[in-house]
Every structure is written in structure tokens, then in C-alpha cells.
Amino acid sequence: MKERNKNNIKAVFFDIDGTLFSHTQKKIPESTLESLDRLRKNGILIFLATGRSLDELDKMSVGDILFDGYVMMNGHMCYNRKRELVHSLTMEKEDCDILVKLFEEKALAMSIVEEDRMYLNYVDDMVRQIHDDITTEVLPIGEYKGADIYQFILFYPSEECGKWLEGTKKCKIHYWHPMAGDILHSDSGKAASIEIILPFYDLVKEEIMVIGDGENDIDMIEYAGIGVAMGNADDKVKEHADYITTHIDQDGIKNALEHYNLI
């Protein structure tokens, strides 16, 4: 019999898109669902660490799974098992003023993400295609009315995105699609928020594994005791991983967890 959990891993944090949820299958692969169940039976906690909001989560099959904690909106909002808020971080007002002006002028396609509301300034074919690529309904057109902003979503080529942050003080961009990325508070990120919530569970970073595939997963892959990149991850993500598993559609989650004897 294999030696179980020789790395003393007590919790695993999962990205959603391209990690738990396959956009080719339009669902969570069966081997992944079985693996999550086996983790639980082995006494290992399971967490989400995603750029998505709780509202988006509940529109996906991932929302049917009970996790022990939720790092949402790239760490801007974090919840415990009961979905009670334990940490939040909003964008700086001065930066919001600059970015909301771009949104209102429709200088480029953008979304604003509030606590319980997401909306676009306009929709074109590119925006529709990106939403289709991530198995998500196109957001409604909306108007900013002064609520706290947790992040912006920018629809623009990654190599030319920097100019849109000119004048901001506490912003960064993490791309999750060649033509779309999240504008975040520079103090945020999955790793920063994971570090904040670990004490709630009496965990330290050496006791966690993280699995992801996108640019916004690099910080947590570097931070965790074990960082795993999916086989379908970007090459620059794989460079930071302790282990590269197979493609999501080739039992990537199952193979990673078995490699480290967690299931």
C-alpha cells in the first residue's frame, strides 16, 4: 500500500477555470469529483481560490460542492465554510475614479465587479467570445452608481494593457485569457489572502497544496508548500510549479493528488 500524505498536506486550494472546471467538457470531470470526495474522506480540507465571485460560482456546477473555505475575486473577498465573510479588500477610491472614467467613456470593453453585482459598459463580438470561452453568460450592461468596487475586468490584449493603468497607484493586472484580465488592488492576490485565512483553520503554508493553471495562480503556486500547475497551464505558470500534472481533461487533478499520495 502507498504511504499516504507523506508531505503532511492538510488542505488543498483549487483554482476553478481550467483546473476544476473543464470548458471543453462544460463540467467538472468525473475523476475530479471523485478525487474531491476522496480528499474529504482522508481528512484533507478543500478550498477554492479563484477570480470568480460567489454569484458566478453558484451559476456553475462547482457551486454544488461544499468547500471548507472560499478565496474569491482573486482574494478580494474570502469566506468560511458557511460562506460568512472573513476578509475583504476594495479598490482604492483614487484608482476607481480613473478606471470608472474609462468605463463610462467606453474607451475599451470593461466590467465592474461589486460585492453582489457585475456589469459591462458595452458588448461586442470579442466580449461574447471570451464569455463563451469560459462558459459564462454575457454580463448585463450597467451603470456605476457609487458602490464599493472589488475589481475590474478588462477586455484587451495583454501585451498592450499597461497603458490603461497609467495614473493609478495601487493596481495590477492578472490575465486569465489572451484578451481578458482582472485589474486588482496591488496588495491583493490569491497568495496574500490565503495567508490571511490560514490561521482561521490552524494551518501554515507548508501544510497546503495549491493547484492552478493561470497567471493569477502564480503567486499561490510559489507561496504554498506544494504548488502544482495543470498540464493545460500557460508555460510561464509551469515555470513556478513544484509539479506539472496532466491536462484537466486527462485526469489532471486525480493524477496530481495521487502523485503526492493524498488520495
Produce a short descriptive summary.
The protein has eight helices and 13 strands.
The helix/strand class is alpha/beta
Oligomeric category: single chain
Q: Mind telling me the C-alpha Rg?
A: 18 Å
Biggest sheet character: 8 strands, mixed
Arithmetic mean pLDDT: 94
Count the DSSP helices. Answer: 8
How far apart the termini lie comes to: 12 Å
Order of helices and strands: EHEHEEEHEEHEEEHEHEHEH
- Please give the share of residues in helix: 10-25%
Low-confidence stretches: none
Strand order of the largest sheet: 5-4-3-2-1-11-12-13
- Strand percentage lies at 15-25%
Topology, number of strands: 13
| Rough outline | globular
Q: Any overview of this molecule?
A:
With 263 residues, the protein is an alpha/beta fold. 24% of the residues lie in helices and 22% in strands. The protein has eight helices and 13 strands. It has helices at residues 30-41, 54-57, 93-105, 125-133, 190-197, 218-223, 235-238, 252-259; strands spanning 11-14, 45-49, 69-72, 77-80, 85-88, 109-113, 118-120, 151-155, 171-177, 180-185, 208-212, 226-229, 243-244. It has an eight-stranded mixed beta sheet. The radius of gyration is 18 Å and the shape is globular. The model has no long low-confidence stretch (mean pLDDT 94).
